[in-house]
Design goal:
This is Sugar O-methyltransferase. The protein is of the alpha/beta class and about 350 residues long. The protein contains twelve helices and 13 strands.
């Protein structure tokens, strides 16, 4: 746990957490394919515990969030933070400078690769909802690691295919809602649907409603009793987006020009991803963009270790998304390759 993260926090208000508890109760009764997998169950327990004690207002500083769904470029160890404090370090810490260099590089990639048209990226500036632990300002606009990751994915998409007609976007495993923030900030006609397991479906609901207003985002309390969740009806009711729980995906109806998944398929089991891909392909008319590990996540070797039972690898996506043709792939500029050989690859797919 980071000493620097032990900032002031407040107990959640009585109106905030009942939605989370309802989601969790319904998840326990959902079909197995829509419940947390081997990787996510222990992660979920830690996230829920901190949401219940600290509340969601500063969730981007929660240790569990920084570990599992709020990526950062560089995280200082407790000893580094203690040493900096003891020495009276003033200004940007060394690890923050290293993070800024990486963030500047990614910002430059997006600026160079982007072109006019949907999705609109050029004016995006991230909110400070959730009290981010790491955020950088370039050209007067705010960016986090999560935002720059998505912006690079979208830049490759726009560089590869014609995206001028992309209005409706579906995502599975959208973290705390970054993609929705990017899309809805830049286009008043965009509509975004995020499908996720709780507690992340709760977190992204909270985030997007804080950013765009409670009336703009349909959350689980709006859709829980619906037998059919119709995209056009949600639009007609004045919503700009929706956050659904995983077991609601089979109820979703409508046509989406784009589907996005960023690093969450790699945390699932192959049969779970295969089920999701079948449902997605029936809903998506044009494009898919994915970012996932080429070799998949680490297999858990012990009962108390966080990992997968069977990794989802590059060839699995080729098999699962059979109605789409892969038209671009990158693991160095728009994706990432570590010095240890780990490749997080961004791929763009076009419907056959």
């Amino acid at each position: 746990m980071h000493p620097g993260l032990l900032v002031s926090w407040a107990m959640p208000t009585p109106t905030e957490l009942p939605l989370l508890q309802t989601m969790l109760a319904d998840a326990a009764a959902a079909p197995e394919l829509y419940r947390p997998t081997r990787f996510w169950q222990p992660c979920s327990d830690l996230i829920v515990a901190e949401l219940e004690t600290r509340g969601p207002a500063s969730f981007r500083r929660h240790p569990s969030a920084l570990r599992f769904f709020v990526p950062v470029f560089r995280r200082a160890s407790p000893i580094q933070r203690q040493l900096a404090s003891a020495l009276g370090f003033v200004g940007e810490h060394p690890w923050q400078r290293r993070a800024r260099v990486i963030a500047e590089r990614e910002f430059a990639i997006v600026a160079a690769a982007d072109k006019p048209g949907r999705p609109q990226l050029a004016a995006f500036s991230e909110s400070e909802v959730g009290r981010p632990d790491e955020q950088f300002v370039f050209e007067g606009r705010r960016f986090s690691c999560s935002a720059l990751r998505y912006l690079r994915m979208l830049a490759l998409l726009k560089k590869t295919v014609d995206t001028h007609a992309v209005r409706n976007v579906l995502e599975i495993g959208g973290g705390f809602g970054t993609l929705g923030e990017i899309l809805l900030s830049g286009d008043p006609d965009a509509f975004y649907v995020n499908v996720d397991i709780p507690p992340l479906s709760f977190v992204s609901s909270y985030y997007l409603r804080q950013v765009f207003g409670a009336d703009a985002i349909a959350t689980y309390d709006h859709t829980r009793e619906l037998e059919v969740i119709d995209l056009d009806q949600l639009r007609g009711q004045g919503f700009r987006g929706a956050v659904l729980c995983a077991w609601q995906l089979p109820k979703l109806r409508g046509s989406f020009e784009l589907f996005v998944n960023s690093v969450s398929f790699q945390e699932m089991e192959p049969r779970v991803v295969e089920n999701y891909s079948a449902l997605v392909q029936a809903l998506v008319s044009d494009y898919v963009v994915l970012r996932n590990s080429v070799k998949g996540k680490t297999v858990a070797s012990a009962a108390d270790e966080i990992g997968v039972v069977e990794p989802v690898v590059r060839d699995d996506y080729l098999r699962f998304f059979e109605l789409f043709e892969r038209v671009a792939a990158d693991g160095t500029i728009f994706g990432d390759t570590s010095t240890k050989g780990f490749v997080s690859e961004v791929t763009v797919w076009k419907k056959r």
